[in-house]
Amino acid sequence: MTLGRDGRLTLYTRTDGGLLRWTQRGAGGDRWDGPEFIPVADLTDLAVVQGADSYVHFLGRRERHGSDGPRVDIVHAVQYQTGRPVTAWRSLGNFYRDRETGLRIGAPAGAVDAQGTVFVFVRNAGNGLQLRREGKGGKWEAWRDLEGAGLAAEVVASATSGGLVEVFAPSDRGVQQWRQERPDGPLRSLPPLQFHASAGSVTALETAPDRLTHYWVDANTAGVVAHRAGTWPVPVGGEPGDGAVVALRAPLDGYDCTVLAQRGAGGTLLIGVCGTEGEQQGVWWSDTAEQCVGDPALALDGHGRVVVAVCGRDGGVSVVRQEEGPGLTLPPHWNRL
């Protein structure tokens, strides 16, 4: 779920043969247009990344079948304005010439720095990390090997408000990280962190200028933890199921707060709230009782209110918006789109 320059939210989901898109009719409103079908064939994975310029970038792993067998490449498209058409999907290729080796690459992750440069990261067949980024004038640079080893299929890429790009990659050796020391500078690897995150559970949130907090499900304790560079992970509770811990900063009762959302072990959406960077003082969790599958989505609408979206077991999409009340008050009835 993304917020456009005009204050309208847009919601995207995967479907057979492409994407479905819903668009708010007005900023902060309850009415949505859609679903609109955006065709793109043969995607196995998709990442949606938004830059400070509000452009929405789509990065996909595509597997097409021909007479010589399947071939995999990475594809990219852009939505420049809310409700406007998506550009043609452009292939960014595969960093392997050998077709069979190329089948073993992972899903793309992306980040957009403060200058609007798009960074694409993909786990390679040797379980290291590859980077391709958009150069000056829109021309894409060649794929680069950032090395690494033992990476999981999914990596998490982020860009701070100051334009620093960072990659957080769970692996069989703990967590491996790459980080820029200055905007537009090289990505340098950092010593591995001896923590183990469950596959697909990691998310990143900028909680102070150029400082990220990562949240994940600890593979050993099965609980959610929070971590910032130079500190130990802080357990924050919850009863997580599978999928990502989604995070959002939001003003609640005049305080800077962090909202967490995840599909719980019972299959319903769990919401957690704490003061931003105040996880040690406690995270207050509640069960919405809303059944869901996959990862939820969180965003602030054009009026600064929290909006939550989930996909139901039947494939339908439902949203709910923060209402008047103390803290984060959500109404009991969800709006099915």
CATH-derived architecture of the largest domain: 6 Propeller
Low-confidence stretches: none
Secondary-structure element sequence? EEEEEEEEHEEEEEEEEEEEEEEEEEEEE
**What's the shape?**
globular
In total, how many domains does the architecture comprise? Answer: 2
- How far the N terminus sits from the C terminus, by CA atoms, comes to 14 Å
What is the assigned CATH homologous superfamily of the largest domain? Fucose-specific lectin
Question: Based on helices, strands and strand pairing, what is the structural class?
Answer: mainly beta
Content of β-strand = over 45%
CATH top level of the largest domain? Mainly Beta
Helical proportion, percent range: under 10%
Number of helices: 1
**The biggest beta sheet, please?**
4 strands, antiparallel
Q: What strand order characterises the main sheet?
A: 1-2-3-4
Mean of all residue-level pLDDT scores: 94
Number of strands: 28
- Rounded to an integer in angstroms, the radius of gyration calculated over CA atoms is 19 Å
Q: Briefly note the CATH topology name of the largest domain.
A: Neuraminidase
Describe this structure in words.
This protein has 1 helix and 28 strands. By secondary structure, it is mainly beta. The protein folds into 2 domains: about 1-195, 6 Propeller (Neuraminidase), CATH 2.120.10.70; about 200-335. The strands form 7 sheets. Strands 1-2-3-4 form a 4-stranded antiparallel sheet, with no helix packed on it. The chain is globular. The chain starts with a strand and ends with a strand. The mean pLDDT is about 95.
